[in-house]
Amino acid sequence: MSSKKTFKIKQKLAKKMKQNRPIPQWIRMRTGNTIRYNAKRRHWRRTKLKLFGMVINKSKLQLQTRLVDKLYSTATS
């Protein structure tokens, strides 16, 4: 992750960080232990967040530059 983040991305990361916690014990007591754990818990290494505009796929970037170069060369000739 880059050190320079937009405010919108930073807000999304903060929200996901707050959501990633176990359920409180009093909820287990209230529901009669039917809800035992947080099913939406996320591990930082196994499941990545789908934040758009963060990761640029190198192969896709190279393909786009090749297509632009091809279009430019046909337009100039």
TrEMBL record:
Signal peptide from the UniProt entry: none
InterPro entries (UniProt xref): Ribosomal_eL39 (IPR000077), Ribosomal_eL39_CS (IPR020083), Ribosomal_eL39_dom_sf (IPR023626)
Ribosomal protein in keyword set: yes
Superkingdom: Eukaryota
GO MF, one annotated term: structural constituent of ribosome
Biological processes annotated in GO: translation
Keyword tags: Ribonucleoprotein, Ribosomal protein
Pfam families named in the record: Ribosomal_L39 (PF00832)
GO CC term, one of those recorded: cytosolic large ribosomal subunit
Family: Belongs to the eukaryotic ribosomal protein eL39 family.
Name of the protein in question: Large ribosomal subunit protein eL39
